[in-house]
Amino acid sequence: MKKLATILTMSCICLFGSLQTHASTTHKVKTGETYYKIASTYGVSVHELMNSNGASSTLIYPGQSIKIPSTITSSEKDLVARLVEAEAKGESYAGKVAVATVILNRVDSSLFPNTITGVIYQNKQFTPVQNGKINESASADSKRAVSEALAYRGQGSGSLYFYNPDKTTNRWLRSKQVTVVIGNHVFAK
């Protein structure tokens, strides 16, 4: 089960590509920090962070300056977290990361809009948009799940869809290749 959670977490990070950005910043490495911890803090992928710094190894040193690449806006991150909260409330943390990853994967896919807002508000895609639950606040867990999904961007199985098999009869959706099952959700591509 722990291996499945790790695989799922890794699957949850392929979403944020062509997004609004902020200016790049620099981070001074503190004792005990890793590329993963820094990436999670700033909401970027480890891969992007290493590429921006020309790193071929994950080894970093206290006092080293790390360039932080541009990332999504805080309002986009909040929007994803609110969708995660509404779609995966009551699900495991891994399930929340997986839902966030689907959003990011859709942004990167040519099959969907290329912005967070476009993906989330695409007609008839997410029930919380239709019933207004998207407007409720996100929990700390959902916010953390989005940061983790961003940190592992590009390292997952490419899930573009998720559904609860007890709540959908959509044959088209059920015909998609299953990538992982977490809690009450089936993830597919």
Automatic annotation (TrEMBL):
<dbReference type="Pfam" id="PF01476">
    <property type="entry name" value="LysM"/>
</dbReference>
<dbReference type="InterPro" id="IPR011105">
    <property type="entry name" value="Cell_wall_hydrolase_SleB"/>
</dbReference>
<dbReference type="GO" id="GO:0016787">
    <property type="term" value="F:hydrolase activity"/>
</dbReference>
<dbReference type="InterPro" id="IPR018392">
    <property type="entry name" value="LysM"/>
</dbReference>
<dbReference type="InterPro" id="IPR036779">
    <property type="entry name" value="LysM_dom_sf"/>
</dbReference>
<dbReference type="GO" id="GO:0008932">
    <property type="term" value="F:lytic endotransglycosylase activity"/>
</dbReference>
<dbReference type="Pfam" id="PF07486">
    <property type="entry name" value="Hydrolase_2"/>
</dbReference>
<feature type="domain" description="LysM">
    <location>
        <begin position="25"/>
        <end position="68"/>
    </location>
</feature>
<keyword id="KW-0732">Signal</keyword>
<protein>
    <submittedName>
        <fullName>Peptidoglycan-binding protein</fullName>
    </submittedName>
</protein>
<dbReference type="InterPro" id="IPR042047">
    <property type="entry name" value="SleB_dom1"/>
</dbReference>
<feature type="signal peptide">
    <location>
        <begin position="1"/>
        <end position="23"/>
    </location>
</feature>
